[in-house]
């Protein structure tokens, strides 16, 4: 994460050089990211994944730290949550509203209002859209803020409230660090994999034309994404998107796992949709932010439905590694599909 990066660094491959006309900045392509699921298995790949995902990943550690802080100091008392009451649900709503506003608002202020990094390592040439009738208030950022805060935080809070109520009443399997320290720790590793698996299939589902036109097109108006675009979705998409919390109703978990899961699911997209690859300090990459893998999906639609942590796109032929060849293949598939 601390490798030196020059804002004017040329693209890292011949394909990347050719693609530079399509992007203001792009990482070296083809995109290659080692995962524990690569075949044949490699201890080197597993170690690289662990370092990249947990040791050097400031955002993942932030969601984990925020979950610990919320559990210890901010979450209402579990006994209080045994009965549905507007006061404790409202308190959780206010927490989530505040966290999303601080993270997404902070990133937007830094990159798009203060322009503290200018356009260094910004994927798109364009800025956030204004004066566009496709967006509420004719403004992309205001539109994204409305759907993220009004709908996104509501569904996020609703799912959490149901789980906490069920946990407080003993209706779901629980686990503590004292009872099973190995599983307690391992579940934090499993959650992002489960989230990626769930996201791929829900995402494929809502790209089915009737559902796409009805609900998912709202999110895809954001071809050029920003921090507020992450969970700017139709309410029905929020309803589906947050169903991945259902795993905690059948797998022994602790509320701190659910908090981490929902922060990963709700606050994580603010960074992956940031529009900038990295946070630079003195021309050095300090924090990885934007996800070019997903940026390709917002540009070309018919590729990279999941995340790079699981090889589902490779398995089902929807993977784009960012090269001209893979983009041409995706365009051909799209033409054939619509024809």
Question: How would you characterize this protein structure?
Answer:
It is a single chain. With 339 residues, the protein is mainly α. It has one domain (43-294). Helix content is 54%, strand content 3%. The chain contains 13 helices and 2 strands. It has helices at 14-19, 43-55, 58-74, 86-113, 140-168, 181-206, 209-220, 235-241, 255-266, 268-272, 292-300, 312-315, 324-338, and strands spanning 278-281, 284-288. The chain has a two-stranded antiparallel sheet with strand order 1-2. A hairpin with a 2-residue loop joins strand 1 and strand 2. Helix 4 runs antiparallel to helix 5 (140-168) and helix 6 packs parallel to helix 9 (255-266). The relative contact order is 0.16. Residues 1-18 have low confidence and may be disordered.
Write the layout of secondary structure elements.
Layout: H1 14-19, H2 43-55, H3 58-74, H4 86-113, H5 140-168, H6 181-206, H7 209-220, H8 235-241, H9 255-266, H10 268-272, E1 278-281, E2 284-288, H11 292-300, H12 312-315, H13 324-338
Antiparallel strand pairs: 1-2
Main attributes?
mainly alpha, two-stranded antiparallel sheet, 13 helices
Look at the helices and sheets and give the structural class: mainly alpha
Helix content: 40-55%
Global mean pLDDT: 92
What is the number of E strands?
2
Termini separation: 44 Å
Largest sheet: 2 strands, antiparallel
Q: Rg, please?
A: 20 Å
Which oligomerization state do the chains in this entry correspond to?
single chain
- Low-pLDDT segments, ≥5 res: 1-18
Number of domains: 1
Number of distinct helices: 13
How large a portion of the residues is in β-strands, by DSSP E?
Answer: under 5%
Order of helices and strands: HHHHHHHHHHEEHHH
Provide the spatial order of strands within the biggest beta sheet.
1-2
| Form type | globular
